[in-house]
Amino acid sequence: MTRFSSAKCCLEISDLSLAYDGKPALRKLSLQVPRHRVTAFIGPSGCGKSTLLRAINRLHDLNESVTQQGCIRLEGEDIHAPYLEVAELRRRVGMVFQTPNPFPMSIYENVAFGLRLQGRLPKRKRDDIVEWALESAALWHEVKDRLHSSAWSLSGGQQQRLVIARTLAVQPDVLLLDEPASALDPISTLKIEELIRNLKSQLTLVLVTHNMQQAARVSDYTAFLQAGELVEHGPTDSVFTNPRLQRTENYITGRLA
Ligand SMILES: Nc1ncnc2c1ncn2[C@@H]1O[C@H](COP(=O)(O)OP(=O)(O)OP(=O)(O)O)[C@@H](O)[C@H]1O
Q: Is residue 1 part of a domain?
């Protein structure tokens, strides 16, 4: 596993084990995610990529069948520390899912949603943040004249960028993306990939993807998981061009589904 100094490390996962109804999905997995970089989680279906991503956002908290051991630290803080509210964790760690899920409200209100939850802001300030978030999600120029139209009037690719803007508006430190482009057409996919590359100047990104070319195009580091274990982790160039393990090579070259 590639390690980073504490000055560069954003997320540190240590000996994380997780089971559903006693059936292991993650096994003593340790991994560091560097700040302001894109880390891709790759691996065969069912290897635990989404389970790991959801653990970082504490999305298993309400699932009574889940048992979990180990530790996840965000900027050095245990994400299960009693003083850290789960709502605050989810503000700091945003998550975007495979299928775009804009709320049934206007484009503007989708982006302003998290801001309103945080309390009252002067309208001008809120407008500025909405514009900034839509700019950051590379959507502003496409929607600036229709901010009060329904979010559902947007195309699938635009809806996914709107969801990213909604997440960015509350200024997270980390953005978790679970196959964010797998439901999109090739042009929308390229836009999302370009956006991911551009966003790393603002925050830390973790991307789950089945698409090897996508992992190679957008990520700086790659973690290869298999059967709930971390098999290989390192700079994406090395993992793809010179993997240390035969298992990794087999997966990357399509010899292991
Ligand atoms: N809510 C759940 N309840 C029970 N088992 C689950 C649940 N979610 C996932 N699992 C199981 O945990 C294991 C890991 O699943 P997970 O969805 O994390 O894998 P994945 O690598 O993201 O797969 P895919 O690439 O197909 O999305 C699988 O065996 C899966 O069946």
A: no
From 18, 26, 49, mutation site for ligand 1 pocket: most ligand atoms within 8 A of C-beta: 49
pTM: 0.95
Q: Report how far ligand 1's centroid is from the alpha carbon of 111 (Å).
A: 30
Rounded Cα distance between 186 and 195, Å, is 14
Q: Which of 17, 68, 61, 40 is nearest to 228 (CA)?
A: 17
Residue 99 lies in a domain: yes
Which tens digit of pLDDT belongs to each residue from 55-90?
Answer: 999 999 999 999 999 999 999 999 999 999 999 999
Q: Residue 101: inside a domain, yes or no? A: yes
Number of domains in the chain: 1
Q: Is residue 2 part of a domain?
A: no
Q: Which domain holds residue 85?
A: 9-252
CA of 132 to the centre of ligand 1 (A): 35
Contact in structure between 75 and 10 (CB atoms under 8 Å): yes
Mutate to test the pocket of ligand 1, among 51, 210, 251 (most ligand atoms within 8 A of CB): 51
ipTM score: 0.98
Structure tokens at 245: 């393990």
From the CA of 25, how far away is ligand 1's center (Å)?
A: 7
